[in-house]
Amino acid sequence: MESATRKIIHIDMDAFFASVEQRDDPSLRGKPVVVGSPAARGVIAAASYEARQFGVRSAMPSSTALRKCPELIFVPHRREVYSAVSRQIHGIFAQYADLIEPLSLDEAYLDVTANKAGIDTATETARVVRARILEETGLTASAGISYNKFLAKLASDQNKPNGQFVVAPGRGEAFVAGLPIGRFHGVGEVTEAKMKRLDIHTGEDLRRQSLTFLQQHFGRSGAWFHGIARGIDERPVNPDRERKSSGSETTFETDLLDTDRIEAEVAALADKVFTWCEKAQAFGRTATVKIKYADFEQATRSRSLPGVIADPTTLRQVSQDLVRSVYPLRVGVRLLGVSISNFEASAPQHTAQALLPV
After folding, report:
1. Which residue of the set 21, 50, 101, 107 is catalytic?
2. 14 known member of a binding site
3. Per residue in 115-163, pLDDT tens?
4. What class of enzyme is it (predicted)?
5. Among this protein's residues, is 173 annotated catalytic?
6. Domains detected in the chain
7. Is 311 part of any known ligand binding site?
C-alpha cells in the first residue's frame, strides 16, 4: 500500500462462539453446532460453518433452525469463556497496532500505518496476526486489508473462513461496484428493500445516483451512501469509540399476562444490566424498556434522569415504572428488554432518592 494512505486491517473471527465450543469439545468438530437454546422461543446466538451449510444463521429462531437442520446440536452460551478468549485476541492485536477499535468480542479494526511491528506490508501483518491467533487460541480468523474502514470490513468477508483479501488503493470503487448493496455496512434489511424499490441493487447502481437524490430518499445517510459507492470513507480507527448503550433481554416460553411476573422479570433484567455497568464502570442517564407482544408488535419506553443511574435500585424502579406505562395489556408479552444509555465516565455518589423524579 502507498505510504500516503492509511493501512487498515479488519480482523473478524470465524464463527467465534461456535468455534470456541468446537475447540473445547472435540466431539463437536465437523458437526452442525449452534450456541443458544432449543426452546420453542430460543434464538441462535452463533452457528458453526457446518450449521450454516443448512441455512442456519445467528439471530434465527431456534424452531426455524431445527426445521432447516434437525440434527442441530445446541450448546449453552458461555459469555465468560468468550470474553476471556477475546482478551487473548486483543492482547495479540496490541503487539501490532496502537490504534485498535474493537467492534465486538470477535472483531476489530487495526490501523497499522505506523508499522509498530516493523513488518513490510499490511498484508503480511494481517497474515502474522492471524497465525498468532491460531497458535495461541486454536481458532481461525479472517482479515480484510485496505486504505479505509469500510473497504477493510467488506474485504474480510471475501475469503471466509480462515482467509484474507486486499483492496488496494485505487481499486476501491471498482471493488464496491460489483457487490450487492445488502453487503454494505450501514445498509440494513429495511434500507436494502428501499434501495431495491429504487432500482439500486449493486454498488454500481448506487454510484449512479446523485448526492441530491440520495439525500432526498435517505436523509442524512445520503452523503454516506454517496461516499461508499465510490470507496470513500474518511473515518479514522478510533480506540476511544464510546459504547452508546448496553442492555439485556429475554424471550419467554409462554406469553406473560401476570403484571407481577412482568415486573419481576424487568427487575431481574435491570439488575443484570447494572452488574455490567459496575464491571465496565459505565453509568448512564437513560433507561429503556422494550416490550414485544404475542402478536409481534413492539413498544419501547424511555426515561432520562438528571444524573447518571448510580445504583441498581434506581434502575430497577425506573424500569418497572416504564413497563407499567403499557398497562393494561391488550395481549400477552413474549419478550422483555432493559437497556441503559447516555453514558458518563463514572458514577457520582448520588442516592436513588436523589435521582428519582418526584
Report:
1. 107
2. no
3. 999 999 999 999 999 999 999 999 999 999 999 999 999 999 999 999 9
4. transferase
5. no
6. 172-228 (1.10.150.20), 245-355 (3.30.1490.100)
7. no
